[in-house]
Design brief:
The chain has 132 residues and is mainly beta. 8% of the residues lie in helices and 59% in strands. It contains one helix and eleven strands. The longest helix has 11 residues. The N terminus is likely disordered.
Length: 132
Amino acid sequence: MLMAGLLSACTSTPLPNADPARAWIDLETQTGKLVMAERLDNQRLQDGRYFQVTPGSHELMVRFDYEVFIGGMGQFSDPQERLCYLSVRYDDFRPGQHYRLQARSVGFNAYARLYNAAGEVVAEERLVNCLP
């Protein structure tokens, strides 16, 4: 209940305008329930809906929540929640550019890719820490 309240508070606040002197990173998932910005260069963020970074090198950490189904012999259990922290480092963020960090899951494994505005992969996860 508390998490739902926190998430609704975040979504009711409009996103700030992108600063043209910084790079903007959107977050998305197609296989998970939630992906949120957690840390930028090892500093906790106040707003987990995006990253906005100065040009150059940065390490991005996102929280990624998704469900996994366990089963065998044709039997599957109820979905189990899985929480992962994924870190991506990129050395060449450019001012005014938009990037997209996509978190995804395949079974128990979680992955992240950073795409530039042209849709090219420019970085992948370098560290993944998951709970259960």
